[in-house]
Amino acid sequence: MRLKSHISLFSLVLSLSCSGKTETAVSSPGEAGETGAAGEAGEAGEDGAAGEDGAAGEDGAAGEDGAAGAAGEDGAAGAAGEAGEAGEDGIACWDLNGDGEPNPEEDTNGDGSVDVLDCAGADGAAGAEGAAGADGADGADGADGAAGADGAAGAAGADGADGADGADGADGAAGADGAAGAAGAAGADGAAGADGADGAEGADAFCAGVDPLEFLTPAFTAGGTVTVGEPQTFTANLTDTGLEVDLAFLDLYSDTYDGGTTFTATFDEEGPNVFVIIATDGCSIDVATVSVDVEVAEAPEPAATVPGFTAELGPDMSAAGLSQCGGIAAADFSSTGGTEFYALCNGYSEVVFACSIDSNLTAEYVSSAFSLSGVNLTDGACDDWDGASNSPYGADYILSVDWSDPDCYEYNVDFDMYVHFYVQWGCAGHFNTHGTGGRVWAYVRE
After folding, report:
1. Pick the CATH number of 215-294 from 2.60.40.10, 3.40.50.720, 3.40.50.2000, 3.50.50.60
2. 391 CB contacts (<8 Å, ≥6 apart)?
3. If you average pLDDT over every residue of the chain, what do you get?
4. DSSP tag of 435
5. What are phi and psi of 9, to 5 degrees?
6. Which residue has the higher pLDDT, 59 or 311?
7. What b/e readout covers 183-208, taking b as 16+ CB neighbours within 10 angstroms?
8. In the structure, what pLDDT confidence band is assigned to residue 334 with cuts at 50, 70 and 90?
9. Has residue 382 got a pLDDT over 60?
10. 360: buried, middle or exposed (CB in 10 Å: 19+, 13-18, 0-12)?
11. What is the pTM of this model?
């Protein structure tokens, strides 16, 4: 646009110049004189002063166009022009009336929105007719129509032939009995009938032929010396009736009974203890009042112990060259129980562990001997032997002893011995023997 204005202005200036319309003044020339005789050529005079310009001659005829000159070199590229103004937006393909607004009639696909999906072109020509599809399945039968009106009555038919005679009617009711006649004379007695056959033999009752159940003398037998506080096994002595026997007890301090003639009892007093045994086999019952002499248990021989030992005393193992160095009897949930247990066990050649499942001093499990060479049981390090491990657990220890050779930090309450010191332990396959009075002991050899 701006380049075009410059070209028009240049054309206007050029046009005014060629038409003689300039502001320069031009003088008129004088009349020409007669031509004089030619003189000798004189020396060339000095150039005279330049005369005034003569009047401009009329424009000569336009000469023919000269041959086209060679094309000049391309000029340098001009600076980029300013960006033109943005053109107006075109009409959307769905805007059928060109008003720029979506109208209901422009929703050609009926989806509730006016958008590019409504920009459908004109319908194409109809395609060739496709092949006929397979017949559809028969539709369900329609409902029955309403019954039609009755037809007109037909003419009366001819009378039929007479039917056969009907069967005779039933007999009438019997008449009333006549008055009873006089009684006849009594007839002679008939002969006695033969005896009937014997009936089947009845079944024997459940207890038929069973001898009574009775206590023998003595009424019971003890399995050994009966001592205060120690469970003892007893057997009731009864006649054999061939039936299963059940027992019951009165005035017995503590008993355990699982059927049959054997039971376990515990007594809490020294001297004669009287109680009652009731026995039955389901057919008969017998009762015996019995007395058992209960003794005070003799104190065990003191076990050999290491110097300074004051813990729970265990069974004497001095015959095997062992002296007790540690022992516990009850859980007190101490956080340093293992350190206390092992305190006197360092500095010897071997250590042996033992335990009981209850409060007696019988060791139900005794371990192998484990070397203490180079071992400090209280240094906070894990001690791993062939068949046992003593693992640190917080500020305490857990002892694992088992035929499966537990490694460090391997714990299982099913081990031969499992001891979480002063918290929980088990012995000889029995779980949680700390709750049944079970003890744990340690012995050392010089």
Report:
1. 2.60.40.10
2. 382, 397, 398, 400, 408, 409, 410, 411
3. 79
4. G
5. -65, -40
6. 311
7. eeeeeeeeeeeeeeeeeeeeeeeeee
8. low
9. yes
10. middle
11. 0.37
